[in-house]
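Good morning C.,

I know you're traveling, so I'll keep this short. The sequence:
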Amino acid sequence: MPKIAAAATRPPASLHDLANDYLESCRARGLAPTTIRTAYTYTLVNVFLPWCALNDIAVIEQLTQEELDQFTTDLLETPSKRGKQLSPYTVHHYVRVVRQFLKWCRAEGGTADSKPQLPGLPLRVLEVMRRDEIERLELAAPTERDKLIIRLLADTGIRVGELCSLEPANIITGADQRAFLKILGKGPRNRLVPIAPKLAQRLETYQRFRPADARGSHIFLAARRDASGEYAPLTTSGVLQLLRGAADRAGITRRVHPHLLRHSFAAEALRRGMNPVQLAQLLGHSGLRMIEQVYTQLTTDDGFEAVMRVFTVEK
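The tokens, ready to paste straight into the viewer:
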């Protein structure tokens, strides 16, 4: 009877190789490069894989529930390189990324059925700016460029990266004179964000006078020429600097940053009765988690006025 050769058994893939394959999968799915770099890559390469190496874990089969629970515990209890404990929010983020990675591994044939426990989170109260503070901030800005940037962030809720990427072609005006910004957000999600007619007119006027030697076609440019003698597109760090300068001139002592204006837009929209689902779409969110956090900014007075608008009938 002829002998049957035994099929060669492939050795299990290392966690390092699986992490690389997962990150490649994230890129293939069209996730935003910044998200992949700052969230997924950092968590896996700088947090999870070093922890696995420290605990002699090389393959996914070694990741038992006990080991994964220890991962969460170590994040909560072990000081960071700066000597401080990681915040529960940071630990929650790291653990969520690892859970998503392990879920992908299981779908690809991995055998680890366990997942690390998510730590509980205290209710986070998001800071927002009042509309009168935003007015002061805009008035204190020294140039029309800076004033426009503040007003766009405050009145549209777009992300700072989305603002820096704006080009003239992104300003869309319909036959009825309604104006929108065409935004390419995180991943392959496009959306149209309405802008007020006066703001649209200011934006149209501003972008017509961009320098002829500007690099690229972005609307917002750096305030000074670079080493090559050209005006480069404005960066997110440039926006942060101009906001800090305007806040100093306006006498606003709190830290002012682009996401603060985004949260302020969301809180004001909810306060004025915008549908939360519609707001999430305008902000480019796939869910309502951030919107739920913003709800904590609404006061009891806001709640009373909202109910009165619903049930008070004019006589």
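Safe travels,
E.
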